[in-house]
Amino acid sequence: MNPSVLVVEDDPTLNRLLVKELRKAGYELDSASSWQEARERIAAFAPNLVLLDVNLPDATGFGPLSEIAGTRPVVMLTAYGSVHQAVEAMRLGAADYLVKPVNLDELELVIRGALERSRLQAQSALARGDAGLAMIGESAAMQMLRQTIREVGASDVTVLIQGESGSGKELVAQALHSASRRRGESFVAVDCCTLQEALFESELFGHERGAFTGADRRKAGLIEAAAHGTLFLDEIGEAGPAIQAKLLRVLETGRFRHVGATTDLRSDARIVAATNRNLQQRSRDGQFREDLYYRLSAFVIQVPPLRDRRDDIDLLAAHFIASRRQAQGLSPAWLMPDALARLVAYDWPGNVRELRNVIERALILLGPGEAIGPAHIGTLDSGSAPAVPVAPPATQGATDALMLQGEPTLESIEREYLGSLLKKYGGNRRKVAEVMGVSERTAYRMMDRHGYK
Ligand SMILES: Nc1ncnc2c1ncn2[C@@H]1O[C@H](COP(=O)(O)OP(=O)(O)OP(=O)(O)O)[C@@H](O)[C@H]1O
């Protein structure tokens, strides 16, 4: 399938000309003459690129650009002689710009270049193990989320992001960083769930030489790596009491200390934290410091679960299909309406991560020239959707149910048990931990150990 372009231009003559030229160059085309119409066309047509006029009857300036720049490349059409407009457009994330009157030779070059750069970015994002940093979704909930990110991104306020596992909290944290004046500095993500508390403390705050056995030299902490940038504390609800106390101090005074040090250092990192727990409840129950909760929740962003924004499933599925196929050098695959209907009807306990995994599994099963149908999607109920990559089975054929052969080791029983629960609960770690009767932290470590992450 050829790349698709949406032309948003209210001058009918120019609009027609641009559509005609780009169609001749082999692109799929759609057009809109107002911002409202453009929004509808983006949702329905899901273009790979938007060519956007800076002055539209219902939106002048860069509001529309900021709204969609994170989702796909946008090439701006700016007024002749306005260097200021072009510079501002690039600053706000435009992939490129064209000055009116549009030079038709330049038009195709600019569009091709912008699409190629975005393809390379998607590829390298996939190679890094994520599905691309763009936040996909045009539902009312996602538009509100983007608006909030824009507003709060500009300030230095501490933000707490709440939402179910796999709903996109880390992506929101990255978007906040990109929307802030710190965007040129580092974004350092720290998972408060992964390590032993003592190790975690020295990892986060750094340590002095000789602070503990094995500390043979002074080491800077992640908080220093995030200097002037953003420190993202994922799974903050899992941080132990010592870390909580030190984080509170950083938030209150901007100061911290290397493990084993006697003097303080200053931190200028902006702190953004995320949790899939009800942190307020945990602080009331005495499981999380109340004072730290109040500091962290200076501003709370709630990321809605995927089942509350089913309108996004179509765009997200198309995005995961396109990025996976592009990375493999294949043309995009078509999702059949009955397969989409199945995706839309499902409740997605593992949220966007689970959707991504279902799509990736469907693509593995896809034969050459085939469209994705219900058979590739499989039955989506909480008992059968593998929401996490399946670790190598300990015993042959034991991935669908807990069926062990021979004399299994305890380790293999644990792996199979964990695998079957993850499958059953759509990768929802909290639920799995609850059923196993262990803390989420322990479940997380088990997943790590058995290669389920
Ligand atoms: N709106 C979105 N557009 C595109 N990809 C998304 C979106 N939301 C989530 N994803 C993808 O889904 C996966 C899970 O997202 P992310 O890691 O941000 O979720 P999370 O809420 O932080 O999960 P956890 O609670 O398990 O840490 C990632 O691969 C991410 O890129």
From TrEMBL:
InterPro entries linked to this entry: AAA+_ATPase, AAA_lid_NorR, CheY-like_superfamily, Homeodomain-like_sf, HTH_Fis, P-loop_NTPase, Sig_transdc_resp-reg_receiver, Sigma_54_int
Keywords recorded for this protein, A-Z: ATP-binding, Nucleotide-binding, Phosphoprotein, Transcription, Transcription regulation
Entry-linked PROSITE patterns: RESPONSE_REGULATORY, SIGMA54_INTERACT_1, SIGMA54_INTERACT_3, SIGMA54_INTERACT_4
Organism in which the protein naturally occurs: Ottowia beijingensis
Positions of modified residues (4-aspartylphosphate): D53
Sigma-54 factor interaction domain: residues covered: 135-364
One of the protein's GO biological processes: phosphorelay signal transduction system
SMART domains, per the entry: AAA, REC
Residues covered by the Response regulatory domain: 4-115
Any one GO molecular function term: ATP binding
The name this protein goes by in its record: Sigma-54-dependent Fis family transcriptional regulator
